[in-house]
Write a structure and sequence with these properties.
This protein is α/β, with parallel strands linked by helices. It has 2 domains: 2-132 and 171-307, CofD-like domains (Rossmann fold); 136-165, no CATH class. Helices cover 40% and strands 18% of the residues. It is built from 13 helices and 14 strands. The protein has helices at 9-21, 46-55, 73-81, 91-105, 110-120, 149-155, 179-185, 196-205, 209-215, 236-242, 249-256, 273-277, 293-307; strands at residues 2-6, 27-31, 37-39, 42-44, 126-129, 136-141, 146-148, 162-168, 188-191, 220-223, 226-227, 230-231, 262-265, 282-285. The chain has a 7-stranded parallel β-sheet with strand order 5-2-1-9-10-13-14, sandwiched between helices. The chain has a 3-stranded antiparallel β-sheet with strand order 7-6-8. α1 packs parallel to α2, α1 (9-21) crosses α13 (293-307) and α4 packs antiparallel against α5 (110-120). The chain is globular and about 55 Å long. The two termini are 12 Å apart. The structure holds ligand FO1. Ligand FO1 binds at residues 7-8, 35, 44, 46-47, 49-50, 65-66, 87-89, 93, 150, 153-154.
Length: 308
């Protein structure tokens, strides 16, 4: 049984690899909800949906989010109306948000709704929001304003300098039912190659999670989302530097050292293996670029081999 801490795209690809090598019922993904935002009155959960759509082989390959074969009639109509269109919601994807919002309004928890959606998409792993309580990543920009995650990531194309990151609601939030058990009972805990600051950061901000992870450090394996000093997708490298860490596998090792005993880094960073181990983290060098399902499956096998 493995428990994986997951953000968006990188985590989704690795989990897609894990379902090639393990029975899905042995996999629990604890997914970030700090990206969640209400658009047009609808509750959008980008990381939960990116993982779910990827595991269902339904992800939009062009964008890495939303659904394949998407149409955009609602967005086109909204544009004509002068509505909010900087955050693109495809017609099929909107159904997911309508369903989620309707069920939440009926009193269902985000965990329950996620289970129902995963079942509808034929996703058999345990897809688990880290908390059912409100959790919202907020970024204070160097030139002043505080913005929500999607404003930063999409509206500003994460191309603005960040002074600090906070997680609104974290202090009052509780791990969703079963989350702490999933960390305590896992044979292997995996920290997926997601953004350490704004994807894994919110997960660690939920009270109780960090402590539970630290108690499982010996069985916890991380995979670096940084290869050769850069993030594959998104602002992980920028944010690490802005938070005072190196944009390198050494910076990632330092960020995760309290929670993981092993860090898997790409062959491109083999020369930094010693520097990673100087952070008190065992270093394993392996191909980490997940350019295909087979590459994802191979990385999943590497993680399981390393952990055993
Ligand atoms: N990312 C964008 O860059 N532009 C978008 O218009 C956009 C829409 C969108 C809709 C649904 C969804 O689940 C994700 C979406 N994303 C979009 C990605 C989103 O910003 C994610 O939070 C990031 O991928 C980070 O995880």
């Amino acid at each position: 049984m493995i428990t994986a801490l997951a953000g968006g795209v990188g985590a989704a690809k690795l989990l897609r690899g894990f379902i090639e090598v393990l029975p899905p019922e042995e996999i629990t993904a604890l997914v970030n909800t700090g990206d969640d935002t209400v658009f047009h009155g609808l509750h959008v959960s980008p990381d939960l949906d990116t993982v779910m759509y990827t595991l269902a082989d339904a992800i939009n390959p062009e964008t890495g989010w939303g659904l394949a074969g998407e149409t955009w009639r609602v967005m086109e109509s909204l544009r004509r109306l002068g509505g909010l269109t900087w955050f693109n919601l495809g017609d099929q994807d909107l159904a997911t948000h309508c369903y989620r919002t309707q069920r939440l309004s009926e009193g269902a928890t985000l965990s329950e709704v996620t289970r129902e959606l995963a079942r509808s998409f034929g996703v058999d792993i345990r897809l688990q929001p880290v908390t059912d309580d409100p959790l919202r990543t907020r970024l204070t920009l160097v030139d002043g304003p505080e913005v929500g995650f999607q404003e930063y990531f999409v509206k500003h194309h994460h191309d603005v300098a960040v002074a600090s990151v906070t997680f609104a609601g974290a202090a009052e939030s509780r791990p969703a039912p079963g989350v702490l058990d999933a960390i305590e009972q896992a044979e292997v805990v995996v920290v997926c190659p997601s953004n350490p600051v704004v994807s894994i950061g919110p997960v660690l901000a939920v009270p109780g999670i960090r402590k539970a992870l630290m108690s499982r450090r010996d069985d916890a394996v991380g995979i670096s989302p940084i290869i050769a000093g850069a993030a594959l997708k998104g602002p992980a490298d920028r944010l690490l530097v802005e938070m005072g860490f190196e944009a390198s596998v050494v910076g990632v090792a330092r960020w995760y050292a309290p929670m993981i005993s092993t860090l898997v880094i790409d062959e491109a960073d083999a020369d930094l293996a010693t520097a990673v181990e100087a952070e008190g983290v065992r270093c394993v060098v392996a191909p980490t670029l997940m350019t295909s399902k087979e590459a994802s499956a191979q990385l999943a096998r590497t993680v399981l081999d390393v952990a055993s």
